[in-house]
Amino acid sequence: MRHLQASAIAAIAGALLTAAGCSRDEPAPVEAPPLPEAAQQIRERLMSLDRVDGLWGEGDASSHFEAWLDGESVVFIEERMAVGDYGDYRDEFYFADGELFHYRRTGVQREIATDGEGESRLVDVRLEIDFTPEGKPTASAKTVDGAAADVEDFEIVAARRHARTLEGMALAFFRGDDGATGGYYVLGERRHTFQPCGGAEIYWVVGDEMVLDMLRQRYEAVATEPYQPVFARVVAEPAGKATEGPAADTQGLWKITEVREVRARQRTDCR
After folding, report:
1. Count of domains in the chain?
2. Of 159, 175, 191, which residue is a domain's last?
């Protein structure tokens, strides 16, 4: 499988887009072309597929992605990536028989004046690449603020590499061999707890803002009432004992570093 390295795009974006001044003019939206038929067929059956969520990060680049699997094969990944002040992207990766066959990027990135002295500005970027099963590009198209632009070789290589990275992460999450812990997560006023499977201990959740925001978003999408426990799989570690506030009434602090899954409870949870 081939996959883009978000860091590759981050590093290149950083090299291209460093500027003294910054214009915040928003680019005009450009309508994306229709998806290839095979990619559209995948999107039409997403509701029937398994899904895992994850976070990726390297350097100034970070992302949240969702991957859909048919059996143990990844067929689609949607990623939302932020590259510091240099850009924000939505990337889509479509797979067939374990191989990337279509990549789409939409978003904005910072561009500097060609003379290197003018202000930077945000431009709208659209990129589409089709691949053979052997990973060779068969067709590609790119626009910058609606005008046709060349697709660079590094963009093709980066897309394949990063797709491979995300696919590997998604498979590890799905198979449960990613070091994650399952348990019940609850969010509410003065309540932010996680109870790992197999025990009665309840921990107070802490973590980086990006991780906690993802948890909250997933919880709100799943929970139907306040303080409702939902099942979550997370990578976490003990982080000491709180001495004040509601956290002091729990077993201790539980620092979550990665979120693998958040969904409604099922009878087979924690077995």
Report:
1. 2
2. 175
Give the structural domain span for 36: 6-175
Question: Is 150 within a domain?
Answer: yes
CA nearest neighbour of 112 among 28, 24, 19: 19
- The β-bridge partners of 137 are 131
Within-domain flag for 207: yes
CA distance linking residue 108 with residue 94, whole number of Å:
21
Contact 77/58 with Cβ under 8 angstroms?
A: no
Tell me if the pTM is above 0.85.
no
What residues contact 106, with CB distance under 8 A and at least 6 apart?
32, 89, 90, 125, 126, 127
Q: Note whether 193 and 231 are same-domain residues.
A: yes
Please indicate, yes or no, whether residues 65 and 185 belong to a single structural domain of this protein: no
Tell me the pLDDT tens digit for each residue of 102-161: 999 999 988 876 655 667 788 999 999 999 999 999 999 999 999 999 999 999 999 999
pLDDT tens digits along 24-34: 444 444 455 67
**The tokens of 250 are what?**
């729990």
Confidence band of 259 (pLDDT split at 50, 70, 90): confident
- Pair (71, 15) in one structural domain: yes
Assess whether 185 and 230 both reside in one domain: yes
